[in-house]
Every structure is written in structure tokens, then in C-alpha cells.
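Good morning C.,

I know you're traveling, so I'll keep this short. The sequence:
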Amino acid sequence: MRIREWDFIRGFATAYVLVYHFFEISETTGLIAGRDGVVNHLLFGSHGFGLFVILSGLCNAYALNIGSRGRSSEGWFFRRLLRIYPPYWLALIFTTVLYGVSIGPKTVLHALGVNVLLGEDFYYPHNPPLWFIGLIVQLYLLLPILLYLGCRTGFGSLLAILISASSILRFREGPFTSNLFRQYPSFFVLMVGEFTFGIFFARSFLMGKGRFESSVSDTRLLLAAVFSYLIITIGSLGGGQIAHLLTALESLATVSLFLAVYFTAKAARGHFRWAYSSLEFLSRHSLQIFLLQYPIMYKVISIMGNLGANIPLTFAISLLTVIFFALLVDSLLGRMTGKRGGNVGTL
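The C-alpha cells, ready to paste straight into the viewer:
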């Protein structure tokens, strides 16, 4: 069962990460000169990853509740691994060949997706999004436990504990640095909180029999979510203790962004078909786009920069190249697995 609003959010998250990485790489390669750090401060790329984490908790909790039809959670877990590991391995091979990464014991750790458990990522300079697969596998393992704890203590209480813990850790450590893996424990708590919010949303959606139950109008919830997101993100750009505190509330910012996009999707349904169609297309191929976009864009942006191309043209060619390779990999995997359509490539 596909729910169009969730595809809208997944497509939005895919587009968000694409745009963020395009400008980040453009700064690194010098295509955008004299704006050092503007992307990290203004585009909040981590929130795009956070949307994927929330969606993962949402979709998998929903699938376990109504899609398994009596099948074991162990069977669900292995089906999920079989779905994400083949594209992940292809992305590893692609990155290894493209950048000439030396093959050794660390390559095996990456192939298993356990590199994040060891606090390092050998491929991070070449293809940063690859670390996400290891994180997702850890969250998959936690899903049955979180469902159990949520049912026993209440998902609201569990969510409040996790968000409070992540905020306290973030406030003590400050913003995440480029060496994320040294701060991985606090970062992981943040991700677990966002994953749990996805589970909470799925449970609310199930109780509403296919829609998110709320006594407040969608318009008011949309405005409240947008307002909360802007207050937290814009406020965190400044200096002093207030900005430091708002930076620690990143999980609330990501939740607010998720709700803003969700209620936008509900409002836009039936009115902006071109937007829905475009985002649903990105959603269907989100896994391949997510895993391949960074190394491909880096090469394309470097070449276009040397040719003196402007930013709009470089972005268009980068986007088309990423989509071309994503479709190619989806087609290959579809033939190997006997599947067709979006299930192969959806993150």
C-alpha cells in the first residue's frame, strides 16, 4: 500500500539532500567562491537526512503493524536487508572504481555496514551518504524494542525522553563537527529520537484508520510547524547561549519540518499534480539517488567548473546525470530480482 503524502515527503527529502550536496560540493570545488560555510549554516542539510530517518521509522512500523500479516519481525528484518544491501554494494563498488579507493579490511567492514559501529568511515570523503546504511541497519534492529517500549510506557513518554536526552547531549557537545564519528553516541540518540517519532506517527496514522488524527485543523498545524521550524533554525544561526540552546533542539526542528511537509502534501494533493509527480518520481528512485549522487555530482561539478559553466547549467547537468545512473542501477536490480517499478529503488 502506497500513501502519496509519504512519497511526497520522501521525494522532498531526496530533493533537499540533492540541493544541499550540490551547493556543498560547489563550495568545496570553488564553483561558488567566497561563501565558505554558507551551505552548512543556511540549508541545514542534516534535516534532509532526518526526514529519511523519520520516514524509515514511519514506514517500517506501519509495515510491521499491517503489512506483515502474521509474519515474524525476523523475516521482516531480513527482507529489509535484502532490499537495501544490493544497491549499497553497487554504490560501494561504483565509489571504489570512480575514486580508486584501495580495497582492504575496512572495505569488508563497509560492505557489512558496521563501519559506523567502530566510529570511522573510510569512504566518507568520497561518498558521505554511504554511512547512512549502517545507521539504518542499527535502527532496524532497534525497531521491535522501540515498539515494545512504546506500547508499555506510551510513545509520547518514550519520545519525550529521547528528545530530551539528545537535546542535553547536543547542548553539552555543541554543533556536530566534520568528524561526526567522534560524536556518534550523541548523534545516534538524536537519530533514535527521530526514528521513534516516525513510529509514533505511524501508530497515530493507524489509529486514525489511514489518516493522521488531530483535533486541530491541518492549516493551523502547517503554520505551527513552519513557525517552529523557522524559529529554531534561524535562531540557531546567531551567537550566545540562546543560539546554542536552539542548536541543541535539532530533533524538534526536523520533526517540525516533517510535519510542515506532510501537511503541505495534504493541502497540495489534487492541486499541484506536476509537483506531486516530480517528487513521487524522486521517491521511487530515492535509494539509488541517495547512494550515488555525491560522487557523481562531485565529478560533474569539477568538470563543469573547469569549463567555466554557470551554476544553473551545472546543477541541471548534475541532476540529469545522477538520475540517469539511478535509473540504470534500478533497471539492473529490477532484472536481477525480477521486480519492476519503485520498490527496488525506494529508500
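Safe travels,
E.
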